[in-house]
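Postdoc handover notes: sequence design on the structure in folder B. Input tokens:
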């Protein structure tokens, strides 16, 4: 995937680039990962089953193809687990991210069963559950996580499904239609096991939500077991039809005592409940950490959505001939301003995710080891808050970036062969699953509110600046990036103080604490959490850029600059309203620096796309192929529809 591109319309831009795209790709992905994904690419490209056509398939055909491809991936055993190789979490994550660029549905089915379900079992289960981990990773069984119910989505505390202790077993039951489990990926037709979240009842006492891993289908016949009813959620947009999201109802379904994932809470055969947690809050923090795996991964999903949209639109914009002088190609200023912030967002958030993933891996190692300590509890809260802030901001960025990229391609962007409409159908849903964005970002705001007035440092350092005093704009420094960081810190502190003040005011008027918090979401809590996410993603990515070799640092810092300026510009009204700055100087300088950075990036745009783009076989776009032969490719497609 680092071989030379053929000579074509994009060659002149590649020749002018200030950096070697291969070196940037190695910095971003790593040589070992590139070697591995090149092997995956060759394997799939050489297999006709993985070739695709630009036409709409029926629901049945989509699912048939996804099942066949999934089975073929199992046969290829690209991760080596079926041959006895130990499970490599890093390699699995690389494979998952790479496959998502090919087909979100296929990647989703694979990742749910081999990565997400095992991570939940590892974090919440004990030694007796390990055989299930191996079976899942070898695809001997297929798993899903079943949390969401028809009327209980993000509000997990109100889950209606019950697990009642009875004579040495648990009885899973769905008390009403609103407690129907739904949206679980793989459940519709293919899964055999489910991690089910339910309210634990013992001798008339409810101990809150606990997780149980249970077999729900016979492994040979694939029929639901007695006491379990399973169905399919129905047709959906994009590649999600291949995921087979399902619904499930329990009718006094008996499961063994060993089904309880009991790392922090055990039930004896005679029904005695024991827990090592001090309180419900500590237990919930542990569960939240275990469930953060998929949410942390979705941060990278938003970055990939933005990247793929930007690559297609930028490559097309570099070669298209509409509205150009003398028929020469080029990216005009409006097009740069539309597209460069999107690709900058894709790269910055991707680099942030690389750093966050390292923190998260260490956190999960501590969590799965059984550690219970104040420092781990503090880290759990920060991991949860940061994932609850960055997942919404990243997936919003990806969805909006794809829509803007499609519009920037004009009418051709709406052809199926551009893949832009398909990508929107594939990625839009990420705004709602693993926590609906508008709901979970409130949890990040709650975390910041809980730190107000405290001088304690946070384990990952994402909120250390909250102990600082608010300082208004005192003039520009020699580095605009430092100026943006200072503005962001003031902005978050401004919203934090504003939220606290408004909440106190509402409470003094007799408003409940719940309603008081709701009243400050729009003007303070949500923008505070968004700013917290943007600042942390930018700051971590910027620090990562400084580790790059010198010949790459220039383009990486330009990208960081565009991301920072594009996002702080959205907050200008609050910076002026709140008194951080006055007069035109601050706002004008932000806009001028932005225009200059976008102009400077132009000669590097093609090579930047080359370093970030998936291979053409995966991207599968008539507008975004690496050879730049847009019109030839479009004409070949049009010739298939010639009237007789």
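Designed sequence:
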């Amino acid at each position: 995937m680092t071989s030379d591109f053929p000579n074509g319309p994009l060659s002149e831009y590649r020749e002018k680039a200030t950096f070697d795209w291969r070196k940037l790709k190695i910095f971003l992905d790593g040589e070992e990962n590139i070697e591995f994904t090149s092997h995956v690419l060759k394997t799939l490209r050489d297999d006709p089953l993985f070739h695709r056509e630009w036409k709409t398939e029926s629901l049945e055909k989509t699912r048939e193809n996804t099942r066949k491809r999934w089975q073929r991936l199992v046969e290829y055993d690209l991760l080596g687990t079926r041959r006895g190789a130990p499970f490599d979490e890093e390699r699995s994550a690389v494979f998952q991210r790479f496959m998502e660029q090919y087909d979100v549905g296929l990647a989703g089915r694979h990742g749910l069963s081999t990565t997400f379900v095992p991570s939940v079992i590892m974090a919440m289960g004990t030694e007796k559950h390990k055989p299930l981990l191996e079976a899942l990773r070898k695809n001997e069984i297929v798993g899903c996580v079943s949390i969401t119910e028809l009327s209980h989505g993000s509000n997990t505390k109100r889950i209606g499904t019950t697990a009642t202790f009875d004579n040495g077993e648990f009885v899973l039951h769905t008390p009403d239609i609103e407690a129907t489990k739904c949206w679980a990926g793989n459940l519709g037709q293919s899964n055999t096991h489910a991690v089910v979240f339910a309210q634990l009842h013992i001798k008339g006492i409810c101990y809150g939500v606990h997780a149980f891993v249970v077999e729900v289908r016979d492994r040979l016949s694939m029929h639901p077991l007695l006491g379990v009813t399973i169905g399919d959620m129905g047709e959906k947009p994009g590649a999600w039809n291949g995921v087979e999201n399902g619904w499930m109802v329990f009718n006094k379904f008996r499961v063994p005592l060993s089904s309880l994932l009991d790392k922090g809470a055990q039930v004896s055969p005679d029904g005695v409940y024991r827990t090592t947690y001090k309180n419900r809050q500590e237990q919930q923090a542990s569960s939240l950490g275990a469930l953060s795996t998929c949410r942390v991964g979705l941060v990278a999903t938003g970055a990939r959505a933005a990247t793929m949209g930007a690559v297609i639109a930028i490559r097309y914009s570099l070669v298209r001939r509409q509205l150009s002088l003398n028929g020469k190609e080029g990216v005009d200023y409006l097009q740069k301003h539309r597209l460069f912030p999107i690709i900058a967002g894709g790269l910055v958030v991707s680099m942030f995710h690389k750093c966050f993933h390292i923190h998260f891996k260490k956190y999960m190692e501590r969590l799965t080891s059984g550690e219970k300590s104040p420092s781990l509890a503090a880290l759990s809260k920060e991991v949860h808050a940061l994932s609850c802030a960055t997942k919404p901001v990243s997936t919003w960025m990806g969805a909006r970036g794809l829509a803007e990229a499609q519009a920037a391609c004009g009418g051709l962007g709406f052809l199926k062969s551009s893949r832009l409409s398909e990508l929107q159908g594939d990625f839009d849903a990420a705004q709602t699953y693993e926590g609906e964005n508008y709901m979970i970002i409130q949890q990040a705001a709650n975390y910041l509110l809980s730190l107000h007035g405290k001088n304690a440092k946070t384990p990952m350092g994402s909120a250390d600046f909250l102990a600082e005093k608010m300082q208004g704009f005192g003039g520009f420094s020699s580095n605009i990036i430092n100026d943006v960081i200072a503005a962001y810190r003031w902005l978050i502190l401004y919203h934090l103080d504003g939220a606290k003040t408004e909440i106190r005011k509402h409470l003094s008027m007799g408003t409940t604490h719940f309603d008081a918090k709701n009243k400050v979401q729009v003007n303070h809590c949500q923008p505070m959490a968004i700013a917290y996410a943007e600042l942390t993603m930018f700051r971590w990515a910027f620090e990562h850029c400084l580790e790059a070799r010198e010949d790459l640092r220039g383009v990486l810092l330009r990208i960081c600059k565009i991301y920072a300026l594009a996002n702080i510009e959205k907050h200008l009204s609050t910076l002026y309203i709140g008194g951080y700055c006055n007069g035109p100087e601050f706002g004008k300088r932000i806009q001028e620096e932005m225009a200059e950075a976008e102009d400077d990036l132009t000669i590097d745009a093609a090579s930047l796309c080359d370093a970030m783009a998936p291979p053409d076989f995966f991207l599968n776009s008539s507008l975004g192929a690496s050879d730049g032969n847009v019109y030839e490719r479009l004409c070949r497609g049009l010739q298939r529809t010639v009237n007789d």
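Context for whoever picks this up: The mean pLDDT is 91. Don't rerun without checking with the PI first.
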